[in-house]
């Protein structure tokens, strides 16, 4: 009987150690290129968020993007979004969107995409085509 208890404890501790070392696949921030972002936002359920300030947003933004500014109210302002639907986030070059993606992850959003290089990379890529 003692051997069974030790075996059970060994298996349990191995399982717990393995699970604590792996990250959940459903709550990761995925860095995506402009091409990948175009495919992602073409899906109806994707929530596209521009986190730049109002003037930056007004000077040009990705079609159908919501302007939810990265400021002290960001966490409260994302509360109206659906955590079960994919969310794609971008800023000018990637600094603010990285912080916002982290906040979205902590808030429990399931699928998070961040545009690599931000809006500048998006517009640069469009100008090449």
Total domains:
1
In CATH's first tier, which class applies? Alpha Beta
CATH superfamily: Rhodanese-like domain
Shape: globular
Chain-wise SSE layout:
Layout: H1 2-21, E1 29-32, H2 34-41, E2 47-50, H3 54-58, E3 66-67, H4 74-77, E4 87-90, H5 95-106, E5 112-115, H6 118-128
Parallel strand pairs: 1-5, 2-3, 2-4, 4-5
What does this structure look like?
- This is Rhodanese-like domain-containing protein.
- It comes from Mesonia ostreae.
- Residues 42-124 form the Rhodanese domain.
- InterPro entries: GlpE_sulfurtransferase, Rhodanese-like_dom, Rhodanese-like_dom_sf.
- The chain is built from six helices and five strands.
- With 129 residues, the chain is of the alpha/beta class.
- The chain has one domain: Oxidized Rhodanese, domain 1.
Pick out its properties.
129 residues, alpha/beta, Oxidized Rhodanese, domain 1, five-stranded parallel beta sheet, 14% strand, Rhodanese-like_dom, Rhodanese-like domain-containing protein, GlpE_sulfurtransferase, Rhodanese-like_dom_sf
In short:
The chain is an alpha/beta fold and 129 residues long. It has helices spanning 2-21, 34-41, 54-58, 74-77, 95-106, 118-128; strands spanning 29-32, 47-50, 66-67, 87-90, 112-115.
């Amino acid at each position: 009987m003692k051997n069974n208890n030790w075996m059970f404890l060994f298996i349990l501790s191995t399982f717990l150690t393995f699970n604590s070392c792996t990250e959940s696949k459903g709550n990761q921030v995925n860095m995506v290129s402009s091409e990948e972002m175009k495919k992602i936002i073409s899906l109806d359920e994707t929530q596209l968020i521009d986190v730049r300030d109002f003037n930056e947003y007004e000077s040009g933004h990705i079609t159908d993007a919501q302007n939810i500014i990265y400021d002290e109210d960001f966490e409260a302002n994302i509360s109206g979004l659906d955590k079960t639907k994919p969310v794609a986030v971008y800023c000018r070059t990637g600094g603010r969107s990285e912080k916002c993606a982290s906040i979205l992850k902590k808030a429990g959003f399931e699928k998070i995409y961040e545009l690599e290089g931000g809006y500048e990379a998006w517009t640069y890529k469009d100008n090449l085509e």
